[in-house]
Every structure is written in structure tokens, then in C-alpha cells.
């Protein structure tokens, strides 16, 4: 249960991992250790946390310098995952969306973490049951999918694998609430879980409309923003978060889970990627609108 959580760790000190670690310290008051491949990566993650707290809280009078120092005192960094997780209670993996890498991390966690520790993954689409299968504690493996920017986005998807226990699920839900989030619980046999599965359908249809030249990306995004009260249109959002790069790299995973028709990369995105573009707006301006 959540009362037993004292020490936490986040595997991956990049954009998502460092933001999650910040919440664990700032809102929950947990000791948290950021883990990555090198000391440089870890230190960059911790520096990013300090910069965000100064910019968004201290400079606006929401936290005092003393409170900032207390929070930062809860955050450590270490490139030695084995040493970190030996005494940890809850681990959140926030590494790159690569199933083989995540499996290796979970296998290493299993070898070092105490038997009571819960392993969570911040994956946005990888199968939790498959990650759990490389451990000897599949009942203690769960998905905790945070959304970017972590401090502002209210949703956390708590994802149950085939053998995730009720207690593990309830602990992940309680932790999400302690971090100021609104959790939803779902099963892991839906690619993209809940939010991304539904949203990806809209993104793909928007891409198809660009392909058909029904309207420009600007017009399509404007229609969806105003028609459905969205803060950003799906095309501009994917440009902003690097979604097209993820779509390219995850094509095989999506085809495996959703089948070749639903999972296959759209020709427009494939063409854009081959031309060296990572955003659809400049690609439309430079190339596609002239076709």
C-alpha cells in the first residue's frame, strides 16, 4: 500500500523522467533517485528540475528558496541502477519507447530490488504483461502513463497487466492522486491504452485530410480546436511533442498490436521522414502544398 512507500526511483532522467521525479519530491515528499546511463545525463536531469522549480515556483513566490532547497535535497542522482534500487519501494521506468530496452531494465530491477518493490512503467503503449513476464513479480508490475508536461496534465493512465494485483493497482492509483493527478484504470491489451488510442485515430484522419488536400494543416487544426474546444489541433500537437518521430519508430510495434491495416505508417509521414522532416507544418509549406 502507499503508506509503505518511502524511497522511490525513476529510471531515465530525460524530459518525462525528470518531471516525474520532481513531482515525487515536490508534491509527495518522497526521497527519489534519478537513474540513467551516465552521470552527465543524471546531472542534466537534476539541473532541469532545479531550473523548473526556480522558474515556475520560486520566481513567482509560490515556493521560498528554503522550500526549494528542501525539495532538491530529496532528489539524488546515480548511474548505478543496482545500488539505487536495492532499498527502493516504488520504481517508475521512464526510458525510451523500446520494448527490448525496457525488458532489460525490468530484468535488472528484478535482480536487485527488494521483493516488496513495485515496478511501474511510464510507457504510452508497450504491453505491461510482456514487461512483467521478465520479472518474478508480475503481480507488482503496473503501467503509470503520465502525460507531458507532467506538472500541468491531470491524467495518469494506470495500466493493469494480465497478472497485476488489485493491491498494486490501488497503490498506483493512490500515488497518482498524491501527485495531484486524476487516474483512470485500464487493461493493457489496448494499444495506446485509452487516451492515445482514441487520439491517434483523430491524428491519422487529420493526416489523411492533409494528404487529400482537403485543407491545410492550419485549417484542419483550427477546425478541430474551435469545433471541439481543443487547446491544440492534433497536427500542431504532434509537431510540438515530436510525435511523428515516435510514429516512425513505433510502426512495427503498432502493426504487431493493431494489425497491418491500422498499424501501418501513413505514406505522408513516411515521405516526410525520408525527406528529413520531423514536423508536418514545414513539410507542407516546403513540399506537399506544391504537389
Describe the protein.
This protein is of the alpha/beta class and 291 residues long. It has two domains: 2-187, Rossmann fold, CATH 3.40.50.720; 195-286, Orthogonal Bundle (N-(1-d-carboxylethyl)-l-norvaline Dehydrogenase, domain 2). It contains 15 helices and eight strands. Strands 3-2-1-4-5-6-7-8 form an eight-stranded mixed sheet, sandwiched between helices.
Number of strands: 8
**What portion of residues is helical?**
40-55%
Span between N and C termini? Answer: 58 Å
Average per-residue pLDDT, rounded, comes to: 96
Summary of the model, kept short:
This protein is α/β, with parallel strands linked by helices. The protein has 15 helices and eight strands. Helix 7 links the parallel strand 7 (155-160) and strand 8 (182-187).
Write the topology of this structure:
Elements: E1 7-11, H1 15-26, E2 31-35, H2 39-58, H3 65-73, E3 75-78, H4 81-85, E4 90-93, H5 99-112, E5 118-121, H6 128-132, E6 141-146, E7 155-160, H7 166-178, E8 182-187, H8 195-212, H9 217-228, H10 234-241, H11 243-249, H12 251-258, H13 260-263, H14 267-274, H15 280-286
Parallel strand pairs: 1-2, 1-4, 2-3, 4-5, 5-6, 7-8
Antiparallel strand pairs: 6-7
Helix pairs in contact: 1-2
